[in-house]
UniProtKB/TrEMBL annotation:
Methylates the class 1 translation termination release factors RF1/PrfA and RF2/PrfB on the glutamine residue of the universally conserved GGQ motif. It comes from the Bacteria. The gene is prmC. Residues 102-191 form the Methyltransferase small domain. Keywords: Methyltransferase, S-adenosyl-L-methionine, Transferase. It comes from Paracoccus shanxieyensis. InterPro entries: DNA_methylase_N6_adenine_CS (IPR002052), HemK-like (IPR004556), N5-glutamine_MTase (IPR050320), PrmC_N (IPR040758), RF_methyltr_PrmC (IPR019874), SAM-dependent_MTases_sf (IPR029063), Small_mtfrase_dom (IPR007848). This is Release factor glutamine methyltransferase.
Amino acid sequence: MTTGRALCRMAEAQFLEAGIDAAAGDAQALFLHALHATGQAVPRHALREHLQAEVPPQVADLFRQAVAARLDRQPVSQIIGRRAFWNHDFHVTRDTLDPRPETELLVEAALAEPFESALDMGTGTGAILISLLAERPGVRGVATDISPAALSVAKANAARIGVQAEFLLSDWFSNLNECFALIVSNPPYIALDEMAALSPEVRDWEPHLALTDGGDGLAAYRAICAGAPRHLRPGGRLMVEIGPTQAAAVSGLMQQAGFVDIATLQDLDGRDRVVWCRKPHDARG
């Protein structure tokens, strides 16, 4: 008989040969996905008994299809259709950037102070805004994106998680006419000449519109810093995720725009990850 463990070991060997680092974890995640796809509600902690048992043909076929997709370097999250972020699982597709654990720092920092309204620009899956609103019931939330497909994914995630928000098609501030207490964004920050060095999972499978501005990686920050003063309330905060070498440049843009209390936060690996600032309390417009 063929057990789940035997299938996973074969997949693990294929993944290692293909240069996929998290081979064992990926194989188990895909096997669990195959079980779920056949209607078996198996929690992860109960996977062991299924690995030891004979695998039904339908599960084996689905697993092999998932393995083939992974060997083509499709991210596991896209294959299984979800990614864990903060306190929820978010549906992901090829139209959205895969939520990263590093971005949770942006959520954590935003929650450090109260806010009655929040704007998330370039929302993708909606993971940032939805996570914030789930922690702050009653807060008004608006999410924008230039991609209708991404907004559709974000709306579905909000409905499934039970969060009320407005999702708006907008090129940064182009379709906005109100002010917020908090503006957050994880914009495209990879320079065009850095794209070739990205892993195949990112470069070949995630939307380039969410990864790069096609230039120096700072275009989004220029647009955000230029428009944010008109859309932040006095004392309101602007918080953005950055690439690890961009803190000085983004801080400079914030300073030029008249923001104060500019600070950089590091992620768990000690890399610059979030830059934030505040609109002066006595500022107008």
